[in-house]
Structure formats: structure tokens, C-alpha cells
Write a structure and sequence with these properties.
Blueprint: H1 7-30, H2 47-52, H3 56-89, H4 95-102, H5 104-107, H6 110-123, H7 130-155, H8 158-166, H9 171-200, H10 203-208, H11 216-226, H12 230-254
Helix pairs in contact: 1-12, 3-7, 3-9, 3-11, 7-9, 8-9, 9-12
């Protein structure tokens, strides 16, 4: 069924989008509010964005988030790509079990994942810090990357690889010159998704972070618990815009627009 969208359905769709995005629009608007209190608009200012540079706790949290996010992205992307290739291209004993276990982190509540990882670190007596945060983030980002890369593998034309092998290319050359270029959009989309998930995570991070290793979401949550100040709106707006851009790029790449 296709055709012009009914007016009543258009109103419902507009209402749903307004319900979803109105709080975000209010957040963005009040990040430019001159008043220290979010209840009243008194004028436009960029003062709260400037003051972000004076907040050492926010800068430290941003630094930690970038370290954790970039490291997690590199490790999860490498591991997820290799795992996707193994599951998609090879047959081995226990493959079905491995495929089933791949989806467990995707459906497990974050609080359960965080508590289980905290128990593991305590059992092996590992001190909490940036290292434990990275391990925790890789643990739940790996499955997301694998699913995205494997979806890209399913859409690839294997005849190109077979033709390259027939023409005399070795397996390494085929992987480097044929498989990897076709797989690149999926790998890039998985990497962007892993970075977004890692950078924005609060629940798991708050459980496995040690003293002095708080990431930006943990710092912002601590600020909100004490008092609502305009700098919270400013840093939240920046994170929102950056995340939206990365999600857009991940969506474009996942569609495989690059040849």
C-alpha cells in the first residue's frame, strides 16, 4: 500500500516526533540562556560554553572518555571484524552456539553486565581504573561491531573473490584488495557505533570506574545530582550534536554507499 500520507496519520507522526525531541530542543535552547536558572529565559549568551574550558573536572572527564572511546573502538573493531569473518566464512564445531552467545550482550541489561564485570574484577583482584573501563566497554561493544560487519558480509558478492582466486591471486591479496574494500563501509559503521556506545555509557562505567578515572557521562551525572547549572546544558548539547553526527555517519556507512 502506498500513496499520500493521510492527514490524521501525519498529525500522529508529528506528535510522536515532537514528544521525542522537544526535551532535546529545550536543552539546546537553554544552553544559550543568560540566566543561571533554567526556569526563565533572560537573553542569549555563549558564556556557559566558554566556562566549560575552566572546568577541570569536565576536561578530565572528556580526556578519559576519548581515551576509553578510541581504545575501545580500535579493539572492538578488530575483534568484531575477525569474529564476523570467522562466523560468516568458516564452518567449525560449536559455531551455532557461538552465534547464539553473540547476541547475549545485546539483550542483557547494562546493570547486569556492570555488576558481573565488577564481580570478575574483584575476584581476580584487578584495581579499578581506565583499564577496567576499557575491558568492560570492549566486552559489550564487540557484539555490536560483529553484527554490523556480518550484515555487510552477507550483502557482499563472493563471486569477485572467487574470480580473483581463479586469476591467480593468493588469499592475502584477495582479502586486502577485494574483501577489505567491500567490507570497509561495514567496518567503519561498526567502529562509529562502538565509539558512540563507549563514549555515552554511564551505567557500566559508573560500576567499574576507579578513583580519578571518571568519564564525561559520570562527571555530568555527578554535577546534575548536586545542582542544575547552565554548564551542564552546554556540555550536554555538545555531546548530543557530536553523537547525532556520528549516528548519521554510521547509518550512511552501514548502507554501503562507498563502493
Amino acid at each position: 500500500m502506498s500513496g499520500r500520507l493521510p492527514r490524521w496519520l501525519g498529525v500522529v507522526v508529528a506528535g510522536v516526533y515532537l514528544f521525542l525531541h522537544l526535551p532535546l530542543l529545550v536543552l539546546i535552547a537553554f544552553s544559550f540562556n543568560e540566566s543561571r536558572f533554567s526556569a526563565a529565559w533572560t537573553g542569549f549568551t555563549l558564556e556557559w560554553y566558554r566556562r566549560l574550558l575552566e572546568r577541570e573536572d569536565i576536561l578530565l572527564g572528556l580526556r578519559n572518555s576519548l581515551i576509553v572511546g578510541l581504545t575501545t573502538t580500535a579493539l572492538a573493531t578488530l575483534g568484531g571484524t575477525l569474529l564476523a569473518l570467522a562466523l560468516a566464512r568458516h564452518r567449525f564445531r560449536g559455531r551455532r552456539v557461538a552465534e547464539s552467545l553473540l547476541y547475549v550482550p545485546l539483550v542483557t541489561p547494562e546493570i547486569v553486565v556492570g555488576i558481573s564485570l565488577l564481580s570478575l574484577f574483584a575476584a581476580v583482584r584487578i584495581s579499578l581504573g581506565l583499564g577496567t573501563i576499557i575491558v568492560a566497554h570492549v566486552a559489550f561493544c564487540l557484539s555490536f561491531v560483529t553484527v554490523v560487519v556480518r550484515a555487510r558480509l552477507a550483502d557482499m558478492d563472493s563471486a569477485l573473490e572467487e574470480a580473483a582466486l581463479t586469476l591467480g591471486a593468493d588469499e592475502l591479496s584477495v582479502f586486502r584488495r577485494v574483501t577489505l574494500p567491500q567490507l570497509a563501509p561495514g567496518i567503519a559503521a561498526g567502529a562509529l557505533l562502538a565509539f558512540i556506545l563507549s563514549f555515552d555509557d554511564y551505567v557500566i562505567t559508573s560500576l567499574v570506574a576507579g578513583s580519578g578515572s571518571s568519564t564525561l557521562p559520570v562527571v555530568v551525572y555527578g554535577m546534575v545530582r548536586r545542582t542544575i547549572e547552565p554548564t551542564v546544558n552546554a556540555i550536554s548539547t555538545i555531546v548530543l550534536v557530536v553523537t547525532a553526527v556520528l549516528i548519521y555517519l554510521a547509518d550512511r556507512l552501514s548502507r554501503g554507499y562507498a563502493r
